[in-house]
Amino acid sequence: xxxxxxxxxxxxxxxxxxxxxxxxxxxxxxxxxxxxxxxxxxxxxxxxxxxxxxxxxxxxxxxxxxxxxxxxxxxxxxxxxxxxxxxxxxxxxxxxxxxxxxxxxxxxxxxxxxxxxxxxxxxxxxxxxxxxxxxxxxxxxxxxxxxxxxxxxxxxxxxxxxxxxxxxxxxxxxxxxxxxxxxxxxxxxxxxxxxxxxxxxxxxxxxxxxxxxxxxxxxxxxxxxxxxxxxxxxxxxxxxxxxxxxxxxxxxxxxxxxxxxxxxxxxxxxxxxxxxxxxxxxxxx
Length: 285
What we know:
By secondary structure, this protein is α/β, with parallel strands linked by helices. It is 45% helix and 16% strand. The chain has two domains: 82 residues, Orthogonal Bundle (Arc Repressor Mutant, subunit A), CATH 1.10.10.10; 183 residues, Endonuclease Chain A (Endonuclease, Chain A), CATH 3.30.870. It has twelve helices and twelve strands.
């Protein structure tokens, strides 16, 4: 909290009033549009008006408000740019965007088990596509596996045996690295060990091309390769929802990279805080 006080000597009131003012200035579609434009490049007043297809008077009024709030400033050439304060604000708007667009989903799903540093970066998932339905989830993962050229990382509460042969075939054919994390007491179907053995998975483990680790519990899950990633969140009971996910492939294209970076960092964080894999802790049912 800012320790500076306003004229009446009440620091808390000053902080709250200032925060209220910032939210008020952001509560305008045109002012937000100006910020996103300036996030790409410094622009003069006339260029902003042309890009937004609005009058100079409207832009002038709104840039004045943003300037007075300390969010933007003007250089000696007359071009407007984001201040340090403005840059931080624009980077955090994506958090509100992601949670707002998916508010129905997050009314039934939780983030409480996520380390705070990943909650604070949740806006990195804003450029995403929501995929619903277990079959659709499996199809997306199959495409992700097939498109892999370097690695496949998976952190899941259970092994999707519907795709295990696809993964092993891909590893053997292209020599990509396969790394996965399972929780203790993960459930595998009957004869699951036999299936892995018959597919030659243990030879891949011995060669080092496949690696596996174990952690106490998995609620938020990720599956990714070197280009694309997916993330699954737990439902209100704290159980990973395997029937829906977010993918960084909006409209089938490439993302801005922040989504993938979030998933990769989350996977590595859990990998380096994991334990040796112990097959005896798996449950075959």
